[in-house]
Automatic annotation (TrEMBL):
<dbReference type="GO" id="GO:0016787">
    <property type="term" value="F:hydrolase activity"/>
</dbReference>
<dbReference type="InterPro" id="IPR001279">
    <property type="entry name" value="Metallo-B-lactamas"/>
</dbReference>
<dbReference type="InterPro" id="IPR036866">
    <property type="entry name" value="RibonucZ/Hydroxyglut_hydro"/>
</dbReference>
<dbReference type="Pfam" id="PF12706">
    <property type="entry name" value="Lactamase_B_2"/>
</dbReference>
<keyword id="KW-0378">Hydrolase</keyword>
<dbReference type="InterPro" id="IPR050114">
    <property type="entry name" value="UPF0173_UPF0282_UlaG_hydrolase"/>
</dbReference>
<dbReference type="InterPro" id="IPR022877">
    <property type="entry name" value="UPF0173"/>
</dbReference>
<protein>
    <recommendedName>
        <fullName>UPF0173 metal-dependent hydrolase Huta_2750</fullName>
    </recommendedName>
</protein>
<feature type="domain" description="Metallo-beta-lactamase">
    <location>
        <begin position="7"/>
        <end position="199"/>
    </location>
</feature>
<comment type="similarity">
    <text>Belongs to the UPF0173 family.</text>
</comment>
């Protein structure tokens, strides 16, 4: 599984020959790329409807969009993409990947003006190269994109023991999501081997020292390796 961070919450995940793009928003200071510069995704996954997560969906008209039914319907009407509307707790096959949607603690108006109302529950995704089952499988690789969220016990009680992510991308920006301290607790609860900070340094309210997050992860006793990626950097999981 290959992960590429394009800044903010925008990630590309490659599972075999399937490319998934999460929360496309390229108007951020961590990336030097525009949407037309990246390889075309097969699927676009949307955690929620805020503009800094759906801004560039229209640049990928051939991708199938996976989101809550409310948000999927909005994107289909707005941009014409084929969509898969799913909901919390569900798993869908996306090419050679399996995508499980889990709740995130956040709000979910569509676009930052909140003018259209709710797009359903905000979400995070666990992307795996095998279908999740209750039989633990060391050969399966799984990546958790937490979306925009605060700290929640479901990370410890549901996501870690049942979905078993190997790595997690966690928001650390504070103000709109967790800050570094609570994000470090999330890493510990998730019991992942690799952790990546995201959703920081995009706007003044969420400017953060990502190395402080790495120190907080060690301070809570987690053995996770924290990788502070540069924008457009790729990591092989």
């Amino acid at each position: 599984m290959e992960l590429t961070w394009y800044g903010h919450s925008t990630w590309s995940v490659e599972v075999a020959d399937t490319r998934l793009l999460i929360d496309p928003f390229f108007d951020n200071p961590k990336t030097s790329l525009s949407p037309t510069d990246v390889e075309r995704p097969d699927f676009v996954l949307l955690t929620h409807g805020h503009a800094d997560h759906i801004a560039n969906v229209g640049a990928f008209p051939d991708a199938t969009v996976v989101a809550t039914p409310e948000l999927a319907s909005y994107i289909e009407a707005e941009h014409g993409n084929e969509t898969v509307g799913m909901n919390l707790g569900g798993t869908v096959a996306a090419g050679e990947a399996f995508v499980t949607m889990h709740r995130a603690d956040h709000t979910n108006g569509i676009n930052t003006g909140y003018e259209i109302g709710s797009a359903g529950m905000p979400a995070g995704f666990v992307i795996s190269d095998a279908e999740p089952t209750r039989k633990s499988d060391d050969e399966t690789t799984a990546f958790y994109h937490a979306g925009d969220t605060g700290l929640m016990t479901e990370m410890r009680d549901v996501i870690a023991p049942f979905l078993e992510p190997d790595a997690a991308a966690i928001p650390i920006g504070d103000h709109f999501t967790m800050g570094p301290e609570q994000a470090a607790v999330a890493v510990d609860w998730l019991d992942v081997e690799d952790a990546f900070p995201m959703h920081y340094d995009t706007f003044p309210p969420i400017e953060q020292d990502a190395e402080a997050f790495a120190r907080e992860v060690k301070a809570v006793g987690s053995d996770a390796d924290v990788h502070v990626l540069d924008g457009d950097e790729t990591f092989e999981l």
